[in-house]
């Protein structure tokens, strides 16, 4: 089965550069990604973030991208589900409208929130984020599947109402979650949801265990759009003309991202029982931020090198039985991102999905032809 490729961005803006300019650059990156054969575009949702990550309103960006693209899937990765950040019924409305405007190209992946800075800004109780995400997804599905629906839960109580309009895709777009704990992988499988999995830098064995937990728990939702499990892995990505060039261009940026993206996890682990599992990943997170060899070869999160090296690295992830990779292209300037998108489209995607159209050395082809000739 072909491996799907996603372009994943958090709209990270470099020091000294303009947030406004970065947003327009993102649009150019998405349009190039579609041209170069990427299957989907995934945008993060981050609020009041320190530093350069600036993807605070991805639902607005999806509406714009729907008009300037024609083929790629548009995926929230992820929509934050705490009720005070996004009411689930509002999320359903936005999803339905952008699905219509994109002619059925939306996908919805949810998350519970993983930064204390955002939770405190919206007065979110970290003890409630997991339960609110799970209940919010139930409301989201019910509102799209039923003409007139009601909902009675702990956080949401909806009298008989109708979602207007409903999405173009029936019964609704694919729904999934971002998952880093064994518990969330199991829950996603039991609900028949897609999963965007991550081991939080803990390595191959942990990643394989999480995926097996999801698959073992899988139970098809007979009313849902997914006929079988769907596993995606976000991979932090760098590419260059040689391994050394890729390391020079990306190593520090990728290690820096490892440090800032998980900075809140130790604090979260102390704030709520539902986040306590993050304590187990603290040593791996700290090592990934300072040890390039560990980050690249052992954390099961990162690919970086020449096209040939990147292909071998992704093949190792493919051996885990995944359906898609989401290449995180941030932490470097716009020109580097555009170059990486083009190289990926020229060398990486065709290798996995269109091999018989990839030019091979003449000697290799002749050797195969000679081997197939009748032996006298």
Automatic annotation (TrEMBL):
GO MF annotation terms: limonene 1,2-monooxygenase [NAD(P)H) activity
EC nos: 1.14.13.107
Top-tier EC class: oxidoreductase
Domain of life (superkingdom): Bacteria
Name of the molecule in the record: Limonene 1,2-monooxygenase
UniProt key word Oxidoreductase: yes
Annotated Gene Ontology cellular component terms: cytosol
Location of the Luciferase-like domain: 5-324
UniProt-listed InterPro entries: Bact_Lucif_Oxidored (IPR050766), Luciferase-like_dom (IPR011251), Luciferase-like_sf (IPR036661)
Keyword annotations from UniProtKB, A to Z: Monooxygenase, Oxidoreductase
């Amino acid at each position: 089965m072909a491996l799907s490729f996603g372009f994943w961005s958090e709209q990270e803006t470099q020091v000294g550069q303009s947030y406004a300019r970065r947003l327009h650059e993102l649009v150019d990156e998405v349009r190039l990604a579609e041209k170069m054969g990427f299957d989907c575009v995934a945008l993060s949702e981050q609020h009041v973030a320190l530093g350069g990550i600036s993807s605070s309103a991805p639902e607005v960006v999806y509406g714009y991208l729907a008009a300037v693209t024609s083929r790629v899937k548009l995926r929230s990765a992820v929509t934050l589900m705490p009720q005070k950040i996004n009411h689930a019924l509002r999320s359903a409305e936005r999803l339905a409208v952008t699905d219509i405007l994109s002619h059925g190209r939306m996908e919805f992946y949810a998350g519970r929130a993983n930064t204390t800075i955002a939770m405190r800004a919206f007065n979110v109780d970290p003890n409630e984020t997991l339960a609110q995400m799970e209940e919010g997804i139930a409301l989201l599905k019910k509102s799209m599947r039923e003409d007139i629906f009601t909902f009675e839960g702990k956080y949401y109580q909806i009298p008989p109402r109708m979602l207007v309009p409903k999405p173009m895709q029936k019964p609704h777009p694919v729904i999934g979650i971002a998952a880093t704990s064994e518990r969330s992988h199991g829950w996603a499988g039991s609900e028949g949801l897609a999963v965007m999995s991550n081991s939080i830098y803990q390595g191959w064995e942990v990643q394989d265990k999480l995926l097996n937990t999801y698959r073992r728990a899988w139970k098809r939702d007979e009313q849902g759009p997914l006929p079988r499990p769907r596993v995606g892995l976000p991979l932090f990505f760098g590419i260059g003309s040689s391994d050394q060039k890729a390391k020079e261009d990306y190593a520090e940026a990728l290690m820096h991202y490892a440090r800032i993206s998980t900075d809140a996890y130790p604090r979260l682990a102390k704030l709520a029982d539902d986040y306590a599992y993050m304590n187990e990943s603290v040593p791996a997170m700290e090592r990934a931020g300072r040890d390039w060899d560990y980050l690249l070869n052992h954390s099961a999160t990162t690919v970086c090198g020449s096209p040939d090296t990147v292909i071998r690295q992704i093949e190792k992830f493919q051996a885990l039985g995944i359906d898609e990779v989401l290449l995180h292209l941030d932490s470097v300037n716009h020109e580097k991102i555009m170059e990486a998108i083009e190289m990926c489209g020229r060398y990486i995607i065709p290798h996995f999905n269109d091999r018989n159209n990839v030019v091979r050395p003449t000697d290799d082809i002749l050797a195969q032809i000679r081997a197939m000739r009748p032996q006298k």
